Amino acid sequence: HEASATEPDLLPRSVPVQPAARVPSLRILTLRPVMPTDAEIAANPRARSAKLRVAEKRAPDGGA
Fold first, then answer.
1. Which of 22, 36, 53, 54 is deepest in the core (most CB within 10 A)?
2. How far apart are CA 24 and CA 57, in angstroms?
3. Residues 55/25, Cβ–Cβ less than 8 Å
4. Cβ neighbours of residue 45 under 8 Å, at least 6 residues apart?
5. 57: left (phi over 0), alpha (psi -120 to 50) or beta
6. Is the pTM for the entire model greater than 0.90?
7. How far is Cα 56 from Cα 27, in angstroms, rounded to an integer?
């Protein structure tokens, strides 16, 4: 849990506090899931439901 810059614990409960904007922590590397080929499904029938998605973890400051 990240603390916001407004320190909501110090404010009265009646004051609305908007959470800080979140920076995405992952960069998606595949636009669509990678699906198994027909040959792979023939060799391994359980592979038919497989979907591979790839993402890269970003630096804490939001950089790549």
1. 36
2. 9
3. no
4. none
5. beta
6. no
7. 5
Three-state helix/strand/coil letters over the chain? CCCCCCCHHHCCCCCCCCCCCCCCCEEECCCCCECCCHHHHHHCHHHHHCCECCEEECCCCCCC
Nearest to 53 by CA among 39, 36, 32: 32
Per-residue model confidence as pLDDT tens digits over 12-52: 778 787 777 888 889 999 999 999 999 999 999 999 999 99
5 or 51, higher pLDDT: 51
Tokens of 20: 């800080």
d(CA 43, CA 32): 23
